[in-house]
Write a structure and sequence with these properties.
Elements: H1 3-25, E1 29-33, E2 36-41, E3 46-51, E4 55-60, E5 63-64, E6 73-79, E7 86-90, E8 101-105, E9 108-115, E10 118-120, H2 124-136, E11 139-145, E12 151-157, H3 161-171
Antiparallel strand pairs: 1-2, 2-3, 3-6, 4-5, 4-12, 6-7, 7-10, 8-9, 8-11, 9-10, 11-12
């Protein structure tokens, strides 16, 4: 890995962690659009659309298992100044580092870079492709694997997704 990539990864990790903490603690819920909520917080301003999964399936060696997971959230984050949306996912457990997290929308699959409990698109171009697919889809499935070998599948409704991300983008466009 190059030094520039490591700095980018560290910056993204911090930004994603900040988004999660803000989503859990912020009283700045500014909109709800069916299955998605919009939050605004901070200086500089950060705006995000976020949703919890409609369905979660956990399995090990092909058999369903009961596991404890932290918050499971799919985010699209914007920052003041008009930065394009950044897609991220909090799985609620540390991901296995050797297997990418997969995001699938209507048959289109995307690999997400992961570190700890977080996964995100690898580049701004990937964010654009994922956002395009999410806006056109009805549901999204995120598949990950924990360091202990548990396979997880989290399915998110995309009802209200476009309205939520458009609202978040608008609120951070200044």
């Amino acid at each position: 890995m190059t030094g520039k990539f490591l700095i980018l990864a560290a910056t993204l990790s911090f930004a994603v962690a900040t988004s999660q903490a803000a989503a859990q603690e912020s009283a700045n819920n500014v909109a709800n659009t069916t299955d998605w909520s919009v939050f605004v917080d901070g200086t500089p301003k950060e705006c995000w659309g976020v949703s919890k999964p409609r369905e979660t399936v956990n399995s090990k060696d092909g058999a369903p298992v009961s596991v404890r997971r932290g918050e499971i959230l799919l985010f699209v984050t914007y920052r003041e100044g008009g930065a394009q949306g950044e897609v991220s996912f909090s799985g609620g457990y540390p991901f296995a580092g050797d297997v990418p997290v997969k995001l699938e929308v209507e048959g289109k699959a995307f690999d997400l870079f992961s570190e700890g409990e977080w996964a995100w698109a690898g580049s701004p171009e990937d964010d654009v492709a994922i956002l395009t697919a999410l806006k056109a889809g009805a549901s999204a499935k995120v598949t990950g694997r924990s360091g202990k070998g548990t396979q997880t599948e989290d399915t998110f409704s995309l009802l209200g997704f476009s309205a939520a991300v458009d609202e978040a983008a608008k609120r951070c466009a200044s």
